[in-house]
Write a structure and sequence with these properties.
32% of the residues are buried. The protein is built from six helices and no strands. 73% of the residues lie in helices and 0% in strands. The protein starts with a helix and ends with a helix. It is mostly helical and 200 residues long.
């Protein structure tokens, strides 16, 4: 009984992680696509790649993020897509961590450009590390319920029912969107306060 309950929790967590990662990558990729010039500038500011490689990353990464988000959300080739996401997140963590250690003051470019300041901090590393842990969970226990074509993912144990999976599909993206909007609202508030302050 306890083992079955534990398995059900793992599968629910994997479902939630799958849809949460898909939501984050869709938001990030779409923001980069809408602000290509700002994202290209952010990639160059990392100063980690030769100019031709930076151009390739700026051109293709946003589309790759959107593609991975759609495939994960639809449940197509879950294992290879999640492995790709794990690789991307590991690269993101390395790039941001290296830049922070080098004391670079810059926008991480995670969600494209923005009029409000988005200074890179260790919170960005922690956020990506959390996403990496979630992606590893999906990789270890691929959630195949509500998947169009999960590929060679192992068959579901049946612990997660369709209603539970549908509830996860609805709540995980809503939670991510709420957190994202709260973060953006806080940044915009800080920008407004800084603009309305009168120097004395």
């Amino acid at each position: 009984m306890a083992v079955q309950a534990s398995q059900e929790l793992v599968e629910l967590a994997a479902h939630a992680s799958r849809f949460a990662i898909a939501t984050v990558f869709l938001l990030a990729g779409a923001a980069k696509l809408s602000e290509r010039d700002e994202f290209a500038r952010a990639v160059r500011n990392y100063d980690l790649l030769p100019s031709f490689a930076a151009r390739l990353v700026a051109r293709w990464l946003p589309a790759a993020e959107v593609g991975a988000a759609l495939l994960l959300g639809l449940g197509v080739a879950i294992v290879p897509v999640t492995a790709f996401v794990v690789m991307l997140l590991a690269v993101f963590i390395g790039a941001v961590g290296t830049s922070l250690l080098r004391k670079k003051e810059m926008d991480c470019g995670c969600f494209g450009g923005s009029g409000a300041p988005r200074r890179m901090t260790w919170w960005v590393v922690a956020r990506n590390a959390l996403l990496l842990a979630m992606a590893l969970l999906v990789l270890a226990s691929p959630p195949v319920t509500l998947a169009l074509w999960p590929g060679w993912a192992a068959a579901s144990s049946g612990a997660v029912t369709k209603p539970e999976a549908v509830a996860t599909l609805l709540t995980a993206p809503i939670a991510v969107l709420a957190a994202f909007l709260a973060q953006e609202a806080w940044r915009v508030r800080r920008l407004v306060v800084s603009l309305t302050e009168v120097p004395t």
